[in-house]
Design a protein that fits this description.
Length: 317
């Protein structure tokens, strides 16, 4: 099997230590390693990998890299049947890889993958997962990814990248510190002091009309677990998209947070905390939203639509 590795040279770990993979790649003509940087188009590199008839695509980068590559892969329909995807977590944030990728971000993670392939055991480690498709503009391609967030989610990412990452803290440590700071500040000083704003949106789930309401946060994902292995969704009912929304003002936020993040399939929570499984979301208006950490700003009159009709095979090791 020919293996194609697509690396974002600007992703967190790649930016600092991309040469550490060289010893694994040396002397392996069956491995095709392509890199791209700022302003370069990963789609053309995907077309080159397809022309070389690779049987496994390795994405080396973080969540944003994964989203961009999946967008090119599915929007461009480069393969009639896309190859399995292995995510080597080498970004600032690696939430997708933690759920459907490789655990080790270094050479050892790549070596483990290559050994599994050489031993003919790849099929044992494949899982099929729906991919989010987010349509947000009439003249732009729909974005693919595994996590969609709006309202306070966007503000939380801004706080994490601005106040926590700037201190040299990354990964799960930065997520934990951001969560603790937000919960304590919102509880004792209010949303404004925390820099979190509620956003008034109308959300239509699977075509059923729903009232417009101010929302503290809104998320949709096809992942089983998010940051810090949290599962902030319940009542999913087997549908592909896990949807959760918290209305403003959120009652007893500090007390409810553990159940929201780590409760069971059904959770006793106030009505302002809502979650369910859906096949389609239509959201309007949306001032800003994120897909896998990348930020987007749709036109004021354009509703954001989230579906998950496409599926890919991922390697989990």
């Amino acid at each position: 099997m020919r293996i194609g590795i697509l690396s974002n040279a600007r992703s967190g770990r790649n930016r600092r230590r991309i040469r550490e993979l060289d010893r694994v790649l040396a002397g392996r003509p069956d491995l095709l390693h392509l890199t791209y940087g700022d302003g370069e188009d990963s789609v053309e590199l995907l077309r080159e990998l397809a022309a070389r008839e690779i049987g496994l695509l390795v994405i080396s980068g973080g969540d944003g890299t994964v989203s961009r590559v999946l967008t090119g892969l599915l929007e461009g329909r480069i393969w009639e049947r896309p190859p399995p995807v292995a995510i080597l977590p080498r970004g600032t944030a690696n939430m997708t890889a933690a759920d459907v990728g490789l655990r080790n971000p270094g050479p050892r993670g790549l070596e483990t993958l290559l050994k599994v392939v050489a031993d003919g055991l790849l099929e044992r480690h494949l899982l099929t997962r729906p991919v989010l498709k987010v349509r947000w503009a009439a003249d732009r391609p729909a974005v693919r990814g595994m996590f969609f967030g709006a309202a306070g989610i966007v503000d939380a990412i801004r706080i994490c990248t601005g106040s926590i990452h700037s201190r040299g803290l990354y990964g799960e440590v930065s997520h934990l510190l951001t969560l603790l700071w937000l919960l304590s500040t919102i509880t004792f000083r209010g949303l404004e002091a925390a820099g979190i704003g509620c956003e008034r949106m109308r959300v239509v789930r699977d075509g059923e009309r729903e009232r417009e309401a101010p929302r503290l946060l809104l998320l949709a994902t096809t992942l089983d677990r998010l940051v810090m292995r949290s599962r902030p969704f319940w009542n999913v009912g087997g549908r592909p998209i896990r949807f959760t929304s918290v209305l403003c003002p959120p009652p007893r936020l500090l007390r409810c947070a553990p159940r929201v993040l780590y409760g069971g399939p059904e959770r006793a929570l106030p009505a302002e905390y809502e979650s369910c499984g859906v096949r389609r979301l239509d959201i309007h208006p949306v001032s800003r939203f994120t897909v896998d950490g990348e930020m987007y700003r749709p036109a004021p009159d354009f509703p954001v639509t989230v579906t998950a009709d496409e599926r890919l095979r991922f390697v989990r090791l």
